[in-house]
Amino acid sequence: MTILDGKKVSNDIKDEIADHVQAMVAKGEKVPHLAAILVGSDGASMTYVNAKVKACQRIGFNSTLIELPDYTSEEELLEKINELNTSKDIDGFIVQLPLPDQIDEQKVLMAIDPDKDVDGFHPTNVGRMALDLPTFLPATPYGIMELLERYQIETSGKNVVVLGRSHIVGRPMSILMSQKRKAGDATVTVVHSRSKNLEEITKAADIIVAAIGISEFLTGDMVKEDVVIIDVGITRVPDATKKNGYRLAGDVHFESVSQKASYITPVPGGVGPMTIAMLLKNTLLARERHIK
Question: Which residues form the signal peptide (predicted)?
Fold first, then answer.
């Protein structure tokens, strides 16, 4: 069993981007500039956004963090988005989700300029992805594809099961893995809360992408020998033995599934670090497009 070390691979990618940025500086070019809008004080969101800012500092990007109070109106947020859309200094930006109840997330995502949508959530970019056209890929699926490629995991003709049908992970993964690409050419099945004979489907899978949002949902008796496991989930599970009172768990029961898996991502340290690395890669792509 091999651990798919997202932390190591993400650091490799950051080093590659940092080298690219140094070459840009040597040519006198403007370095990429990533902005993030954070509305409110959700703990997980703050941690994630701060990690993005630190990653920008490490590789030589410029970064801007815009923090807005949780009572910010939808109109105020849309005005801020418009400022970033029209700013020549900002190459790409994200609006950290989730947003407070008074703000329509879909309206916000639609307001972002597709050419600066480095999260890859705008319908224009999702449509381009579905048509296999050059675009910003959603960061988490992009990171998973990169992990599969860098570990040279064979996907062509393989039976892939995606647990979950979210717009952020499940559906994009099903599209990408069925396309003609390096980590593609697979036969993909998407399962969800209404799927019947779930265990029968997962037991036939060569590769499983677990993004169902239920901690330790996938167990060892639901998979076959030598399966490849990509665990996208991350949940705080109460644990009295831990100093902070909880432990982090994925959508996969690691102890039982790892006994059968040929490759498996850990939680934390698997998919999570890859998401940030691919966000940076999208921002570099945005800067290069703007130069052209």
Answer: none
CA dist., res. 35 & res. 168, Å (int): 20
Q: What residue numbers bound the domain in which 58 lies? A: 28-118
234 is in an annotated binding site: yes
Is 292 contained in some domain?
no
Helix (H, G, I), strand (E, B) or coil at 233: coil
Q: Which residues of the chain have pLDDT under 50?
A: none
236 labelled binding-site residue: no
Q: 40 and 153: one domain?
A: no
Is 178 known to sit in a ligand binding site? Answer: no
Looking at the structure, do residues 202 and 251 belong to the same domain, yes or no? Answer: yes
Residues 189, 194, 196, 201: is their CA dihedral positive or negative?
Answer: positive
- Residue 44: predicted pLDDT: 76
What token pair was written down for 246? 């909880």
As annotated, the active-site residues are 52, 96, 119
pTM of the model as a whole = 0.94
Instruction: Report which residue type is found at 16.
Output: E
Into how many domains does the chain fold? 2
Spatial strand order of the sheet with 263-264 comes to 2-3, 263-264, 228-231, 207-210, 159-163, 187-191
CATH at 198? 3.40.50.720
Closest listed residue to residue 95, CA positions, set 72, 127, 118: 118
